[in-house]
From TrEMBL:
Organism from which the protein derives: Pseudocalidococcus azoricus BACA0444
Source taxon at top rank: Bacteria
InterPro entries referenced in this protein's UniProt entry, alphabetically: AlpA
Record-given protein name: AlpA family phage regulatory protein
Amino acid sequence: MQQHLELPTTGFLRLNQILQIIPIGKSTWWAGVKSGRFPKGVKLSVRTTVWKVEDIRSLIKTAGGEAISY
């Protein structure tokens, strides 16, 4: 069962939080980032990447309620 995630106004989201909103797999997300379909993340460390909430909101708005999938 998926929980509804309330997006904060500002800040950053980790990948597991994004995938609760956009139901796709990790590899699909990373392929979309590489192709430019999804926003690039911000590297906090070698193994930690986050995305700006504003970029994720924009992605959702641009999709206009369409299913984001491949």
